[in-house]
Amino acid sequence: MPRQVCPRCERPAPTCLCATLPAPPLAHRTELLILQHPAEAAHAKNTATLLTLGLRSARLLRGEAFDAALARPGTALLYPGDGGSAAPVDVSRLILLDGSWRQSRRLLATNPWLAALPRLALSAQVSRYVIRRAHRPGQLSTLEAGLHALALLEGGPERFEPLWTAFDAFVKAGIYRRETGMT
Prior knowledge:
30% helix; single chain; 183 residues; globular; 14% strand
């Protein structure tokens, strides 16, 4: 018999995080568009769903090839690398790539229009996401990167605290599952 999964947060029923999510979702000016590699969708440690549930103007698209029309004026890409700036001006939509680093590089290669976008590169941040190993300092989960980027673009990082609280509950549930051998 398949395990029960919450239809909203997509977590196993015993670790549903819906009660920890801000209600209503948090308001912000900059739209977040998360392009998720299909292999990441079913990953138990995926944070993109929490980000979209906790923010009013966040949307998730799953796939490998995406329409270049998503790069309307005012769109920037949140991704490290050359050409990144501390904060591009006039950003109304921020695209985040969700997947492993290999998957995100594949998304960039498959969608060359993404590389042409202005980039927002975050300064090194310490990750709170201790249930997934980072290969380099400054590597963040999608939720962490999205919230840090919004704070940089819009200021007022304290208004995102309710979503950080939900994220901390997500991490704690993952640690509990790992330590108890729950699957």
